[in-house]
Structures are given as C-alpha cells and as structure tokens.
Design brief:
seven-stranded antiparallel beta sheet, 263 residues, alpha+beta, Phosphorylase Kinase, domain 1
Length: 263
C-alpha cells in the first residue's frame, strides 16, 4: 500500500486519544502537533461530530430483569448439552441445523448487544472520566511525575501555566487550613490538557485537576470512590474541578470546602 501524499503519520493517534489510550505526555504532544496539522485537526473534528450525533436522550439503561435473562441465555448457549446428540441420518444431514454454531452465534450476538447497550447507559461518560482522573493521580505518584513546578507559592505556580495551556487555572494555597500547596504540573483529562495542582495533608497527596467547564453553571460537590481512591468533583467560577486522594473521604470534603471558600 502507498501512503497518500497528504496523510499524516500521527492521525491514528487521534482515535487513540478518543479511546483514552494515550498517557498524559503523549496526549499533550498530540495536542501541540494538532494545533499545526490540518489533517489531525480535521480528524478530531470528525470524531467530535460523530460523538455529538449520539444523542444522550436516546440512550437507555438495560433493565435489570432483561439483563439477567440475557446473561442466562449467554450461559446456556456457552454450556455443552447434557445429552448426547445422535448423528443425523445421511438423508437428513444436509438439512440438520448446526446446533453448536447456532449457540455460538447467539452468544456472540448477545455479547455484542451487551457491548452496544451497556456502555451507552447514562453515567458511562462520567465513569470513564472518573477512571481517567484516578489513573492520572496514580501516575503522578510515580517518582518524578508529581510536579513540573515544585513550589508552595501560588504566585509561582499560577504563572508557570501561562503559554502551556489555554486558560488560567485558579491557584490557592491552603496552608492555613492544613492543606499546603506543594506544586503543579501539566496533565491530561477529559480529552484536553489540564492543570493539576498538588496539595498535601500530613503524608497524603491531593491532586486537584482543573479545566474550563462546558457552560457557566455552578455545580455543588459530589463525592465518589474509584479503585480505592476518594474523589470530589464540582464546578466553580467557570471551571470543572476534580480532587482525588487516598485521604479519608471526610478530609477530602474538608479540603473541597476550604478551597471553595478561599478567595
């Protein structure tokens, strides 16, 4: 096969980014490349249009009883028959239905139905974002990944993001509330580069991920847990904010309230 003269070797990374397969560094490099590459920019726009065509109001969660029946059929189709089948007579062989093949086909069809239906259920997008945020927090705990700009001074951390992202993140030092700022870094979540502000509570680290929110509405804090880590998400001042840590849920809520009240 010959490569089209106007193709870009990085265009396949655009799909990988939409599938959440790129780490923070790769995604940031792709964002920089895409800014000067019309091919990758067009591919991103096509994927965005395709995603927007899937209207959320058309998605429905599979009822629990229907899901149970479907899984029961899957198990039945995958189980070998309990009685021995007699070989068909020669004259009947041509018309005998392929029982094993039919069972396998039914199992594949049912599995495909689960694949199509369940990921489109309400809340799947939020679940995927929660996975991304917690994964980014875990990555930051590896040596050398926590901070790009180590500093306890918000007036040092905030200007560091200038020119690296397309927005100015609000940076606060909560040392008086026992949540001192210790630095910041560039990370990637929700399909875009984001600011990650790093705070500390005793020996525990708190990552606060910040990026511009869609719309101007405020959102009260919502708590959750993923892979053993607690998180709180909210919207404030036109920003989407996710705080994640292994501190107790009550302490993470305390951090959130202190951050929201701080000027």
């Amino acid at each position: 096969m010959t490569r089209s003269p106007d193709a870009c070797e990085k265009v396949l990374l655009v799909q990988a980014e939409f599938d959440g397969e790129l780490d923070a560094a790769e995604a940031a490099r792709l964002a920089t490349h895409r800014a000067g590459c019309p091919i990758c920019a067009a591919a991103t726009a096509d994927l965005e249009r395709s995603r927007n065509l899937i209207r959320p109001e058309l998605r429905n969660r599979m009822p629990a009883d229907a899901r149970a029946r479907l899984l029961a059929h899957l198990r039945q189709a995958a189980s070998p028959p309990t009685h021995a089948l007699q070989p068909p007579a020669p004259w009947r062989r041509r018309w005998a239905p392929p029982v094993a093949g039919f069972g396998l086909g039914a199992a594949c069809a049912a599995a495909l139905l689960l694949t199509i239906w369940l990921p489109q259920a309400p809340g799947f997008k939020d679940q995927r974002l929660a996975d991304q945020i917690v994964d980014a927090h875990i990555r930051s705990l590896q040596p050398g990944h926590l901070e790009d700009v180590p500093s306890t001074d918000q007036h040092t951390v905030k200007p560091w993001f200038d020119g690296r992202i397309d927005f100015a993140p609000p940076v606060k030092n909560l040392a008086a509330d026992r949540f001192p700022l210790i630095g910041g870094r560039l990370d990637y979540a929700s399909g875009r580069p984001v600011a990650a502000l790093v705070y500390q509570r005793d020996k525990h680290l708190i990552n606060l991920f910040v990026w511009p929110a869609a719309g101007n509405g405020e959102q009260s804090p919502e708590t959750g847990q993923e892979h053993g880590y607690n998180f709180v998400r909210w919207r404030q001042g036109g920003m989407a904010l996710w705080a994640v840590s292994d501190v107790e849920a009550s302490q993470l809520r305390e951090f959130t309230e202190d951050w929201r009240r701080s000027p």
